[in-house]
């Protein structure tokens, strides 16, 4: 018996480009992010057609026991003093976790539990992030280049954006970064 060899889908680690299987692509524009940025006046002054991020994912089966694989490409930019970010969400099935792999760029992963406690993890090429169940998560691009992160999550996880309709408990702005840098320097 001769085994067959099937080429699996591929990811280009330097760019985050997916290939070798059918893809689903979704682009989120500034106009889609109503009530996401703190400075609503600044948001209203922005071009609503400007792309903030794109998610490319393999078109794979869904259902119990299946996994999705996708890459978020988050553009650099700001609305007011707040960095471009993804909408952020809890999973609809709260117990479901997720893994992120930093591919390119410089950013932060904002994590928040149901009680509103937050923490930040730096995202950069080679970083690996375990997002535990019951944890909301959002990518934030603090650099001047595209931020790309590969994600793997259960296809049954779903997304719950309404639980965060009032926003995350922490906002990341240029001023916030300066304060965090001072805290690190002062130990």
TrEMBL record:
Keyword terms of this UniProt record: Gluconeogenesis, Glycolysis, Isomerase
Domain Glucose-6-phosphate isomerase prokaryote: 31-173
Record has Ribosomal protein as a keyword: no
InterPro entries, sorted: G6P_isomerase_prok, RmlC-like_jellyroll, RmlC_Cupin_sf
Residue ranges of the TM segments: none
Pathway: Carbohydrate degradation; glycolysis; D-glyceraldehyde 3-phosphate and glycerone phosphate from D-glucose: step 2/4
Record's keyword annotation contains Isomerase: yes
GO molecular function: isomerase activity
Enzyme class, broadest EC rank: isomerase
Catalytic activity, as annotated: alpha-D-glucose 6-phosphate = beta-D-fructose 6-phosphate
Domain of life, per lineage: Bacteria
SUPFAM superfamilies associated with the record: RmlC-like cupins
One Pfam family this sequence matches: GPI
EC number of this enzyme: 5.3.1.9
Coiled coil regions in record: none
Family assignment from sequence similarity: Belongs to the archaeal-type GPI family.
The protein, known as: glucose-6-phosphate isomerase
């Amino acid at each position: 018996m001769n085994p067959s060899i099937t080429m699996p889908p591929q990811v280009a680690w330097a760019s985050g480009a997916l290939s070798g299987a059918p893809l689903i692509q979704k682009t989120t524009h500034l106009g889609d992010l109503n009530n996401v940025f703190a400075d609503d006046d600044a948001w209203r002054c922005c071009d609503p057609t400007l792309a903030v991020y794109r998610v490319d994912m393999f078109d794979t089966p869904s259902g119990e026991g299946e996994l999705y694989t996708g890459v978020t490409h988050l553009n650099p930019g700001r609305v007011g003093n707040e960095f471009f970010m993804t909408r952020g969400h809890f999973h609809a099935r709260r117990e479901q976790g997720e893994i992120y792999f930093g591919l390119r760029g410089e950013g932060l992963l904002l994590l928040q539990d149901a009680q509103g406690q937050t923490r930040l993890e730096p995202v950069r090429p080679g970083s690996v992030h375990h997002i535990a169940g019951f944890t909301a998560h959002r990518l934030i691009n603090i650099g001047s280049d595209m931020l790309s992160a590969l994600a793997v999550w259960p296809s049954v996880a779903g997304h719950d954006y309404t639980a965060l309709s009032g926003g995350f408990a922490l906002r990341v702005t240029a001023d916030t970064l300066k304060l965090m840098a001072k805290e690190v320097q002062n130990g």
